[in-house]
Design brief:
Number of strands: 7
EC number: 3.5.4.4
Order of helices and strands: HHHEHHEHEHEHEHEHHEHHHH
Keywords: Hydrolase, Metal-binding, Zinc
CATH class: Alpha Beta
GO molecular function: deaminase activity; hydrolase activity, acting on carbon-nitrogen (but not peptide) bonds, in cyclic amidines; metal ion binding
Cofactor: Zn(2+)
Structural class: alpha/beta
Largest sheet: 7 strands, parallel
Shape: globular
Protein name: Adenosine deaminase
CATH topology: TIM Barrel
Number of domains: 1
Length: 310
């Protein structure tokens, strides 16, 4: 509503704004994402929402965030230049680090079902901008994996790795374990969702042995219908099987989720103890793309807090 009231725009009523966020399945979520993204038009809009996001994260006690930005949507659906929008986002990031003490890395996300050619634009833009903006840490592929698997992006992932970018991929959210295998095979260092790994014992063993970080999004998986019931979510089985899992909010506004809430769900619905939650917090630092010295600093602070509260 606030964005729609800028000069020259069609103001939204509260009901109309809320309607943008209603969906019943994963396809509906993608359409809602598109409709909401269309409300973002200027660098100031992107600066505004980035600052709001970082304020919210800081309130929850988040000290470092690695945030997917769907550059593929800007290029393909919006057909507008990304650099001015990114400058707005960067202004908010720098301000938040100075005023709130929270750091942020960007992961440039391509929409897989737009195809490799569109993904190449996203990944190469990340490589082009990274020297001037070291906050750009990596790349990934989101979107509808039912339509496009990881394999078509193999060469682009190798190119991104050679450019010094870190590699992530959403996989196993709406499809089976083969999508996760495919993501690993093209070099993904972190797996987003990984929901279907539970169906493949060999894959579970590989993920546990290699300690591949799996970004778990409990609320998101239930809201999109990828996991029909909350108690069916495999998060606890992953933890007990030795996988390196992290808890993540996915798209907070679209899913009514936040990171603090995901930790609460893990505690209240899956019997994660405070000690377990500290382990998950440590996992998030280990799985981050922070430099080793920064990781060590935060891990030591988590360990010190454990001693204080035990």
């Amino acid at each position: 509503m606030e964005l729609s009231r800028q000069a020259g725009r069609q103001p939204l009523t509260l009901d109309a704004a809320r309607a943008l966020y209603r969906y019943t399945d994963f396809t509906g979520f993608l359409m809602a994402f598109k409709a909401i993204s269309e409300q973002l038009q200027t660098p100031e809009d992107y600066e505004h929402i980035t600052w709001r996001m970082l304020e919210d994260l800081a309130r929850q006690g988040v000290v470092h965030a690695e945030v997917y930005v769907s550059v593929g949507v800007v290029y393909y659906w919006r057909r507008i230049e990304f650099e001015p929008l990114f400058e707005g986002m960067e202004r908010a990031r720098i301000r938040a680090e100075r005023e709130l003490g929270i750091t942020l890395y960007w992961i440039f996300d391509a929409v897989r079902h737009f195809g490799p050619e569109e993904a190449a634009r996203v990944f190469r833009k990340a490589a082009e901008l990274q020297p001037a903006h070291p906050s750009i840490s990596g790349i990934g592929i989101g979107g509808d994996e039912r339509r496009t698997g990881p394999e078509p992006f193999r060469e682009l992932y190798a190119e991104a790795r050679d450019a010094g970018l870190r590699l992530t991929a959403h996989a196993g959210e709406t499809t089976g374990p083969e999508s996760i295998w495919g993501a690993l095979n093209i070099g993904a260092e972190r797996i987003g969702h990984g929901l279907s790994a539970i169906d493949d014992p060999e894959l579970m063993e590989v993920l546990a042995t290699r300690q591949v970080p799996v970004e778990i999004c409990i609320t998101s998986n239930v809201r999109t219908g990828c996991c029909p019931l909350l108690h069916d979510h495999p998060v606890r089985r992953y933890f007990d099987s030795g996988l390196m899992i992290t808890l993540n909010s996915d798209d907070p506004a679209l899913f009514g989720s936040d990171l603090e809430g995901e930790y609460r769900i893990a505690h209240e619905n899956f019997e994660f103890t405070p000690e377990h939650l500290r382990e998950l917090a440590s996992n998030s630092i280990e799985a981050s793309f922070l430099p080793p010295e920064r990781k060590l600093e935060w891990l030591q602070r988590i360990e010190a807090w454990e001693h204080i509260t035990s």
